[in-house]
Amino acid sequence: MPHLRTMWLGLISFSTIVSIGLCLNCYECQSKDDTVCLDPFTDERKDIVGDAECDPKATHCVKYKTVMHLLDSGFITGRAREIVVVSRFCLIKPGASDGCIAVEGDGSFYIQCLCSTDNCNSGRSILPSILTVLVTCLTALWVMWR
């Protein structure tokens, strides 16, 4: 029985090391150049954009969403124009935590979401990566205490 426990711990450790050792893959696009990058980022759009292998130094995938309300010469209809730009790409930001921040400015705001698992910058929740960590930890505890 101790050999089975050792085998499970070795397998879990090996899986973690292998997933850490591979390059990160992120979606890379910008809605300024390609409207396919806009939200909602559906499975069909993901297939069109495809994922890109990041530089080995990349630590995160990022999604920036900027929304601007313009009251300029285009203000003919009596309503402000809304401009939305979404960018998704790889980022080198060692020590940064996964999560989102929102910054509001004069008539605009942007949201920056960082995540550190493959293709996590689709705009969906970071719950799957948290769930993976939780299941791995629970499995390791179960194997150790069995």
UniProtKB/TrEMBL annotation:
The chain crosses the membrane at residues 126-145. It comes from the Eukaryota. Pfam families: QVR. This is Protein sleepless. Residues 1-23 form the signal peptide. Coiled coil: none annotated. One of its GO terms (biological process) is regulation of synaptic transmission, cholinergic. Keywords: Glycoprotein, Membrane, Signal, Transmembrane, Transmembrane helix. The keyword Manganese does not apply. InterPro entries: QVR-like, Sleep_regulator, Snake_toxin-like_sf. PANTHER family: ATILLA, ISOFORM B-RELATED-RELATED.
